User: What shape does this take?
Amino acid sequence: MQTLFTIGYQQAKPDAVLGELKRAKIDLLVDIRAVAASRRPGFSKRQLAASLDEAGIAYIHLQKLGTPAQGRQAARAGDFEALWRIYDKHIKTPEAQAALGELLALIKSGKRVCLLCYERDPNECHRSRIAALVKKRTRVKVDDLIPPLF
Assistant: This one.
């Protein structure tokens, strides 16, 4: 059975995240942040893609799978009910559905794919919603990677 991996970089250093990806033999990291910028060194789009490339891991940013601004605000406030309501509405948009289709095609290609977002706990992150949708449509197993804390 194929596995879809997920990872969050909150409270982790880039080397710890890269180590987890290598350990899991990830072929492709799919960045599902709406904004692929970070105040944390090493996690902005260009820096991240470059370090992944050096490690032999491909990178793609599927921005439309990211959480809208209102959902990110709800998450920061700890209002997960609002986050899920906002995200569940967003994932039904044509743009998000197209990006989900692209993700499904990447997974079906046989690559070892990992979804990346910020939150350490997958239960507090929209990546759990995406993983559940993928699992429902493809029957993949989901494995949440948790990098060591810094």
